[in-house]
Design a protein that fits this description.
binds ligand C6P; 422 residues; 14 helices; 4-stranded antiparallel beta sheet; 7-stranded mixed beta sheet; alpha/beta
Length: 422
């Protein structure tokens, strides 16, 4: 009997009301063929593609008003400064932060977390203290804390998760109860499993013990509305390139009182108030944490990406992607020998899997010949791979422009892999 799932063409009304043809038309890169096949881009968790509105915003900055910010009195500098600071206000509104002073531009999520580990962690952690993270963190939310622990003599503690990929809250609570925890770092949406962690509850539990929480939102922000005031998180980090914006820009949200009390992360231009050889005083927030010339046009591009995403509406995006995930999961489950890693009840945006007898890199290579771009590897989450005893997985991850037909192409291509390795 054939194991082929039904490769149906799903009717348009299935797409939760989004005009996918119009949305896809806004992404020039999606129009191409790869190895002679239409591109099916399912590597969105690594980096998503950008709509024309974002490309145009960057191009417009460079072609009509670019100048360095916060420095010049000339018109171009003033215009660039206004656009750059305008983007900061867009990020503030997007996260529902109280003030623009709480929004720091960095290079990426990784730098945002390093900033907190170095500046906040460096001032509060000492020998005997503990930092708590979870077992499903990306390396970006592990290594900076390990480096901090090496410097200070603090210890890294790891909250475990179940086989399904759900955090064990009792174990997390037990770790918090040591009375030595100085900070919790938790991933909002796991890039290796797709698990959506109960971060609001976790923050409440930490705050009940006076422990601040950093949320790694790199994967969450493109898929669900995030309200930092409602979450009551102390820090929230994300990258522009995962939310339809350009590379080279990250965001760190931090509660103002915490940021005020923290020492600068890097020294240089734009982060000072007065410099003499004897002593330097620092600029107010947010400039205190933005040393040197930032990626001006890219920050402006991030602002355009948020405008673009807001115009579609994150609720509509989430509903569409949820349907895609359910559809893909159901289809993939039909394939004998395919094992989905990460089956949490609360899950979003991606499916990680292995195929019996086939290395994930081979899956990725063969899928590429079929025009399907996925990621194969450890996804910079090696401890997650170790937890399941696999070296790597194949991962298909979704964005708002993906369609049910593309899921069908993915499934067909995986069946071809199986045939080749039979
Ligand atoms: N994950 C992936 O393919 P940067 O590289 O700083 O923009 O983002 C780092 C990062 C932090 N946290 C999570 C949960 C992430 O998923 C990522 C990036 C990509 O899964 C590239 S490794």
């Amino acid at each position: 009997m054939s194991a082929l799932p039904a490769l149906s063409t799903v009717p348009a009304e299935h797409f939760t009301g989004l005009d996918l043809a119009r949305i896809r038309a806004e992404f020039p890169i999606l129009r191409q063929r790869v190895h002679g096949k239409p591109l099916v881009y399912l590597d969105n968790a690594a980096s998503v593609q950008r709509p024309k509105a974002v490309i145009d915003a960057i191009s417009d900055c460079y072609s009509s008003y670019y100048g360095n910010i916060h420095r010049g009195v000339h018109l171009l500098s003033e215009r660039s400064t206004a656009a750059y600071e305008g983007a900061r206000e867009k990020v503030r509104a997007f996260l529902n932060a109280t003030s623009v002073q709480e929004i720091i531009f960095t290079r990426n999520t990784t730098e945002s977390i390093n900033l907190v580990a170095s500046s906040f962690g460096g001032s509060v952690a000492k020998a005997g203290d503990e930092i708590v993270i979870t077992g499903m963190e990306h390396h970006s939310n592990i290594v900076p804390w390990q480096m901090l622990c090496e410097r200070t003599g603090a210890t890294l503690k790891v909250a475990p998760f179940t086989d399904a990929g759900e955090l064990i809250l009792e174990e997390y609570e037990r770790l918090l109860d040591s009375g030595r925890v100085k900070l919790v770092g938790v991933v909002h949406l796991s890039n290796a499993l797709g698990t959506l962690n109960p971060v609001k509850r976790m923050i409440e539990m930490a705050h009940a013990r006076g422990v601040p929480v950093l949320v790694d939102g790199a994967q969450a922000v493109p898929h669900l509305a995030v309200d930092v005031r409602n979450l009551d998180c102390d820090f929230y980090a994300f990258s522009s390139h995962k939310i339809y914006g350009p590379t080279g820009v990250g965001v760190l949200y931090g509660k103002q009182a915490l940021l005020e009390a923290m020492p600068p992360y890097q020294g240089g231009g734009d982060m000072i108030s007065l410099v003499t050889f004897e002593k330097t005083t620092y600029a107010d927030l947010p400039n205190k944490f933005e040393a040197g010339t930032p990626s001006i046009a890219d920050v402006i591009g991030l602002g355009a990406a948020l405008d673009w995403l807001n115009a579609i509406g994150l609720d509509a995006v989430a509903a569409h992607e949820h349907e895609l995930l359910e559809y893909a999961t159901a289809q993939l489950r039909e394939i004998p020998g395919l094992n989905i890693m990460g089956t949490a009840r609360d899950k979003a945006a991606l499916v990680s899997f292995t195929l019996q007898g086939v290395h994930p890199h081979d899956i990725g290579t063969i899928l590429d010949r079929e025009g399907v771009a996925i990621r194969a590897g450890h996804h910079c989450a090696q401890p997650v791979m170790q937890r399941y005893g696999v070296p790597a997985t194949a991962r298909a991850s979704f964005a708002v422009y993906n369609t049910h037909d593309e899921v069908d192409v993915l499934v067909k291509a995986i069946l071809k892999v199986k045939e080749l390795f039979a």
